[in-house]
Design brief:
This protein is an alpha/beta fold. Helices cover 51% and strands 9% of the residues. Among the domains are: 178 residues, 3-Layer(aba) Sandwich (Rossmann fold); 62 residues, Helicase, Ruva Protein, domain 3, CATH 1.10.8.60; 111 residues, Up-down Bundle (Zinc Finger, Delta Prime, domain 3), CATH 1.20.272. The chain binds zinc ion.
């Protein structure tokens, strides 16, 4: 059986996936008889560099090319095309793998051979040098001499994944080459192609199977088709995601789902079993961390309103379930912990321990409840006495109900005191807001005790048209930080109570202004972004995580 990657390797410029810009330029050069003496094709592996070089050689030597008015496309079928396409022996097209031909002798040999003209007058001699960055300085020097005075009808095509190395080693040669940068092939394009190939082969496959292949191929078409081959060779029948994972030794999506569910439930116990099973199945724990990072990244995109692509059905379900239970802040925190684990797993002799610790830290990440217990206990006596004062509000502590999650998710025995909606009847004034404040505190308390305590310690001191200033009582000093971390949630409550969007400032009693927000229209996104901004400001390691994720944070 011919490998699919080979069988479906393009034979014409028109079939070069995604690389339209390269295909058009090379086809045009052939058609206009303006082919250069040297080309440099750069890009990641498996995106079609060597294939493009062969198609160029085919186009230059195709038996059916009309020499008077060339179309620029090879026929792909004549004996010459066939031979070049398959990499078979050919007088005029020489393929050199620089990785295995590095000596000076080879360089001399190359130079001597280049002096021979093509086998027939209307043919081109084409040298295709793969992994060109592996060539020695001597080889480049020899090539430079050739390219300075190129024999007619000789074309060099260099393919490399690392053009920078060539720039360092052979800048003068580089300046004589026409350079084309090949792009990574987008997962969607790989998907489409894999579906095409499956159809052409008369094979059935699950959607998710193709998704997993496209993701694994990571921008390379050749890898995608090799994986497909591998999975098909594993067993008969329709291709399933499970078979693809088996072929690749990948960890199943449901494992990641299980971890995320346990984190959402703040359940530490299941984590040991999960790691046990991973170890028993011989899974690679580094891959597990990577897979977890991919899922968290997709979840974070979803939570911040972006649209993650290339997800399997299971992954979409997982994200759907996690959406209402984890905030963007939770996920950023998880990613920060994950990044730490990623670094230490490579140094540690005990990868298992690193992964277990990570999962436990996730599960125990923010015990808001216990913090609240402490505060509730403290509320019996004078505030802040008798109990160790908690350093209020870890930045990512999970609010029972923040501005970015539905209030209905608030658990607890105390039913919400009211159905929500405006608390103010007349216009928004300081007085009106002050008298509505106790009811607003009740609403906050229904979300969490800590939040209620924070609101109770605040009082409205000034109302401008769209701006409310809240000041923290002297006793509430330690709560100020918590209030600032929850500005979005407070703003949501006040906005609800006022029946229109307002901006909120929180400050210490003695004129210490915490934030000087310009009045602006409030949207869910503003709140989310502000929240993220606050989280980032408080924890620089999250800042790095957010950077790494290209997270757009306004302000
Ligand atoms: Zn041909």
């Amino acid at each position: 059986m011919i490998a699919l990657a080979r069988k479906y390797r393009p034979r014409r410029f028109a079939d070069l996936l995604v690389q339209d810009h390269v295909a058009a330029a090379l086809r045009g050069a052939v058609a206009r008889g303006r082919v250069g003496h040297g080309y440099l094709l750069t890009g990641p592996r498996g995106v079609g560099k060597t294939t493009a070089a062969r198609i160029l050689a085919m186009a230059l030597n195709c038996e059916r090319q009309d020499r008077a008015r060339p179309s620029g496309e090879p026929c792909g079928e004549c004996p010459t095309c066939e031979r070049i396409w398959s990499g078979g022996a050919n007088l005029d097209v020489v393929e050199i793998d620089a990785a295995s031909n590095r000596s000076v002798d080879d360089a001399r040999d190359l130079r001597e051979r280049a002096m021979y003209a093509a086998s027939q007058e209307d043919r081109y001699k084409v040298y295709i040098v793969d992994e060109a960055h592996m060539l020695t300085r001597e080889a480049w020097n020899a090539l430079l001499k050739i390219l300075e005075e190129p024999p007619p009808r000789v074309v060099f095509v260099f393919a490399t994944t690392e053009p920078q190395k060539i720039a360092n080693l052979a800048a003068p040669v580089l300046s004589r080459l026409q350079r084309f940068d090949f792009r990574r092939i987008h997962a969607a394009a790989i998907r489409d192609r894999v579906v095409q190939v499956l159809a052409a082969e008369g094979l059935a496959a699950e959607d998710d199977a193709v998704t997993v292949i496209a993701r694994y191929a990571d921008g390379g078409m050749r890898d995608a088709l090799s994986v497909l081959d591998q999975a098909l060779s594993l067993s008969e029948g329709a291709l399933t995601a499970e078979r693809v994972r088996q072929a690749l030794g990948l960890i199943g999506d449901e494992v990641y789902a299980e971890v995320l569910a346990a984190v959402a439930d703040q359940q530490a116990a299941p984590m040991f079993g999960i790691v046990d099973r991973l170890m028993a199945s011989g899974a690679d724990l580094v891959e597990f961390i990577g897979g977890m990072a991919d899922l968290l990244r997709a979840l974070l995109m979803d939570l911040t309103g972006a649209d993650p692509e290339g997800l399997t059905t299971v992954q979409r379900d997982v994200i759907g379930a996690a959406r209402a239970r984890l905030t963007a802040g939770d996920v950023l925190r998880m990613l920060a912990l994950l990044t730490e684990a990623e670094t230490s797993i490579r140094r540690s002799a005990n990868a298992r321990l690193v992964v277990e610790s990570l999962l436990l830290r996730w599960a125990l990440m923010d015990r808001t409840v216990s913090l609240e217990e402490v505060l509730r206990g403290a509320a019996v006596g004078p505030p802040g006495t008798g109990t160790p004062r908690p350093s209020v509000a870890s930045p990512i502590e999970r609010p029972r109900s923040g501005s970015d999650r539905p209030v209905s998710s608030a658990p607890g025995p105390v039913p919400p005191p009211d159905a929500g909606g405006p608390l103010l009847v007349g216009p928004l004034t300081t007085e009106a807001l002050r008298s509505a404040w106790p009811a607003l505190v009740e609403r906050g308390k229904a979300q969490s005790h800590l939040f209620g305590a924070i609101l109770a310690a605040l009082s409205p001191t000034a109302v401008e048209p769209d701006q409310v200033r809240l000041e923290m009582s002297q006793d509430g000093g330690p709560l100020l930080e918590g209030a600032q971390a929850r500005l979005g949630a407070i703003r949501a409550l006040v906005t609800e109570a006022a029946g229109r969007p307002v901006e909120v400032q929180v400050g210490a009693g003695v004129g210490k202004v915490a934030r000087a927000d310009r009045p602006k229209r409030l949207s869910d996104n503003d709140i989310k972004n502000q929240k993220l901004g606050e989280i980032r400001a408080k924890d620089p390691s999250l800042d790095a995580a957010a950077e790494a994720l290209d997270l757009e944070i306004v302000e």
